[in-house]
């Protein structure tokens, strides 16, 4: 089952690459020797605290607004068990397997730090679930993104207790106890503080942020490719992408996007065909000319999100937390605001990238603006509709992306009898960003598909080597211009080529891209 190298967990920061390897490629995980010692030291301090008379939140008291109640020693195992059962209150559709594995990895990373006070065997069991491909069923709704992603993580903790539903390594839905037994694992009774330690983190929203960053890195390059193909198709100029022009406004993302577009259009016979004095067009439309400015701003937004994700992937989040000097202190590090803000910020950038892509597609289909292309790129306009409705589909997704760009992080709703009176909604921000990334994939695919058809219709002029390689890759799955065909499968095929990186690799195989 594993297809990637093992990830060793301790106090060292995780990387986005680590998250993707475990979440999607089934990389195995293991605890370092230092981690096992840290776990043992932290557990020793929690057990000492449990034996003291002073109240300690979540160890000798209830939770949230019920934290004022002292819990007798004989009730403390029940306290942890009841916490998980009551907090496993998620509802709605099950979230994706890679999301659940990402949040499991991030929670394990915090446990491995020793700052939570759980027993070493608790961390080892969570690692075993990952390594055996056992994925608890986690639901869409239930997290407010504060005090941790409580409901999603509680469904994971429930599986460690041998309760609830899970997917086994084959993807079959089964009872947690049965899945553990089949893997040779035994559920366990939670000890003091362990239930709280298993659910008090930003792991769900941060896991989804890491996965979105990974996906957007590729989609930003694809956006440059799609834009360059549209410039060719619409007889635009590459002169506006010159490095000295970009240097006048020194945003790094803009420079990278413009450099990509210049490289993609290098040696293009189509571009060269209208460079001479006979060309009477002074400037291209904004959707062509300003493509690096928009895509570049998205790149810079992504860079900021990566910085925030890097800090979060280095964090150990719990409340209370066991410090290296032995203190056990309450804190607010579980609040998801830093993550929620950048999730919302990325959704704005994704919506705008989708919007400018759709504008270029529409321009290629409009006979009044396409500079000689047939209406809607149809074989026989009027009899055939060509890509008319592909643009409708694109526009529908763009409209959805605009709705998804409305921030979730400003919509705090108090909970727990006003004890938790300000929450981040980071989980909700992450869920809508995930949908937005999927939408952008489809939007760019339709632009690539349309631009490839438009470039073919410029024959006998040919595209440049890099964009031509993309057209060739598309033609392996989708036939060239002709009478109307069932279009949905062609859009699906193009979407798969964007999603799996085929479009990006085709262009990068000709010219280096940033």
UniProtKB/TrEMBL annotation:
Reactions listed under catalytic activity: L-histidine = trans-urocanate + NH4(+)
Residues forming coiled coils: none
Keyword Coiled coil attached: no
PROSITE patterns hit by this protein: PAL_HISTIDASE (PS00488)
GO molecular-function terms, A-Z: histidine ammonia-lyase activity
Organism domain of life: Bacteria
EC number: 4.3.1.3
Keywords: Histidine metabolism, Lyase
Gene Ontology BP annotations: L-histidine catabolic process to glutamate and formamide; L-histidine catabolic process to glutamate and formate
One Gene Ontology CC term in the entry: cytoplasm
Principal location class: cytoplasm
Subcellular location: Cytoplasm
Pathway terms, separated by semicolons: Amino-acid degradation; L-histidine degradation into L-glutamate; N-formimidoyl-L-glutamate from L-histidine: step 1/3
UniProt entry tagged with the keyword ATP-binding: no
Record family assignment: Belongs to the PAL/histidase family.
PANTHER family: HISTIDINE AMMONIA-LYASE (PTHR10362)
Protein name according to UniProt: Histidine ammonia-lyase
